[in-house]
Amino acid sequence: MIKIVILVSLIVFDLLTKYLIQDNLFLNQSIKINEYFDLVYVQNFGVSFGLFSGYVSHWILIFIALIVVILIFYLFIKSDKQLEKLAYFFVIIGALSNIIDRLINSYVVDFILLHYENFYWPAFNLADIYITIGIIMLIMSFFIKLKQ
């Protein structure tokens, strides 16, 4: 039950932040927070970093993402390692949140922009952070397995 509450809460938090960005910023508008971090409203019609933007229908991206979530859920169920299960859980949360966003808008809202001087990382959102945390945890679990 607690996992469902966490899943729903993190998805709602991600979608709420995306809504607030859409509602309060113009497309491509940027608000400087500090010298390394801006809030920006970007519509991502592609996958990571906007790859395939304009080349693939959002319905195909949704379908592929759902297949990946089903595969990760299967791995989640089969795993007997707590860290691995938690990693899959975070990836699933992030993926589902971006899928819901794409279903609502036909694109994913990105709004976190990190940079240093003239070097910019592509904009991303909280769901991307959830996925990244999950992948880092998954890598950690693989290294822990190797040590045992």
Task: Provide structural commentary.
The protein has 148 residues and is of the alpha+beta class. It has one domain (2-147). The protein is built from four helices and four strands, in the order H-E-E-H-H-E-E-H. The chain has helices spanning 2-24, 58-78, 82-105, 126-147, and strands at residues 30-32, 37-44, 108-116, 119-120. Strands 1-2-3-4 form a four-stranded antiparallel β-sheet. Helix 1 (2-24) packs parallel to helix 3 (82-105), helix 2 runs antiparallel to helix 3 and helix 3 (82-105) packs antiparallel against helix 4 (126-147). The radius of gyration is 16 Å and the shape is globular. The model has no long low-confidence stretch (mean pLDDT 93).
Query: Roughly what percent helix?
Result: 55-70%
Strand order of the largest sheet: 1-2-3-4
Number of domains: 1
Largest sheet: 4 strands, antiparallel
Computed over alpha carbons, the radius of gyration is 16 Å
Unreliable residue runs: none
The helix-strand sequence is: HEEHHEEH
Tally of strands: 4
> What is the CA–CA distance across the termini?
32 Å
Shape: globular
Report the total helices. Answer: 4
Q: β content, as a range?
A: 5-15%
Mean pLDDT: 93
Backbone structural class: alpha+beta
